[in-house]
Write a structure and sequence with these properties.
CATH class of the largest domain: Mainly Alpha
Distance between the termini: 38 Å
Strand content: under 5%
Radius of gyration: 19 Å
Number of domains: 2
Number of strands: 0
Structural class: mainly alpha
Number of helices: 14
Amino acid sequence: MRALAEFIMRGRLQAAVVAFVGNLLPFISPAAVGLVALRKGPLEGLLTLMWAVLPVVLMFSAEVPVELITSLAQLVILWFAADQLRRSQSWAMAILVVVGLSGLAGMVFNMTLPEGVLMEQIRQMFERFVVGQPADVQLDQATVLSVLVILTALATVISLVLARWWQAMLYNPGGFRAEFHQLRYSMSVAFGLVGAILVCTVLEGNFLVWINVLALPLMIAGVSLVHWLVAERNLGLQTLVLFYIGVMVIPILFIPMLVVIGFTDSMVNLRSRLKSGAS
């Protein structure tokens, strides 16, 4: 990974090559855009973004625009978020940008494709990637949009994490870890997110599917606290491995728990309390 990051930072040509070819592997192309934007600024990042967009347009035909639009959305949102992280040095703000722009992309997507067309594209995606009977999958458009938004936001955050890790590896060893471990939302932002979740719960209907999108920042804050606690108590890598296995195997238990942890941390600053409790 270090060799790849060093290659990207050698110049525009090298960054363009990785951005162009990196679409063959998950997260590599967006992370290359993010690394350039974080280190050299938004203009250089935009030039790299253009090379990353080109193969996406060529790879996905007009007959299946869902993959095209979501891939393009991830690249553009990543570029905006990287610029925000570069200027603010705040992971909390960068993740809010990712979630907000992902939600906006979902709404634009909803307005540009009629329901029948969108569902047909989703059916085509199931036929290509899911083993089984796609006809048995019953999803309404609102649920589909929610899933697309969440997946876009998560993929963008993972790519941004990779880009920031590369940057720290090259120019600030240990900086990414310290930075991510301090991810925490202010009380006002946490209340705003929870308030929006409650509003969606009351309104019901199509609003219910946006609850998971709004909970995503607090969930990531909870993940940050878990990483900090494992490092603080020297619990070892195996603890994080077990944690992520739990998230993947029992998400219905772990994800709400992480959201609660993230919200509680905003209210009472769990890091300071855990530090004082251990001393």
